[in-house]
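HUMAN: Would you supply a protein with fold tokens?

ASSISTANT:
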Amino acid sequence: MDTASLKEFILLIPVILFSLTVHEVSHGWVADKFGDPTARATGRLTLNPIAHLDPIGTIMLFIAHFGWAKPVMINPYNLRDPKKDMIWISLAGPGANFALALISGILLRGFMSFVNVNVSDIITSSIYAILILTLQINLALGIFNLIPIPPLDGSKILYGLLPYNMEHKFIWLERYGMVILLALFVIDSFTPFKILTFIIWLPANLLSYLFAGRSLFYLLNVLNMILSI
């Protein structure tokens, strides 16, 4: 591992832990508000990241910059309107990630406007790098989790939106969801067909421009420059 990769790895650790934790706590908090105390009873309404980490999902975040945490358990029998409530519970995780990305983007705008960023200054360059990584990771997390393939949040949102007479046509995906996601990752990693890259990074680039006033590609080039010093 070269120096730049080591720097990025060290900076990524707190960003990923915080982003995953906020994602899962948001699911649990909204479920609790809708009447299901399962997350609270199982200790998932905590900002302690250890309670939320999924080993494979976390490794994926470091490798591919998209991944997942250990899902919060939801008991639909405790919900007043399970089909409708699950839509909001499922939206809460990606929504929290987009909120963190928005905050990071606003801070980046202010940082670029009012702070003389000197890449040789370890303090300002580290802040700049952390903000860029927070924007990147949370955009990736939010968009990836909205893909409507089980067990991602997007599948639960889609299921909740489907009319009752069409639900059974979607349930079969639950058996093969992880296989489909693994296949997409393998195709993306080892073939020229960058399906996941296109799904995630095109909207991430557009949202980065809206949130931070700069495209994600531009910011990642700046990040690479900072890490190479």
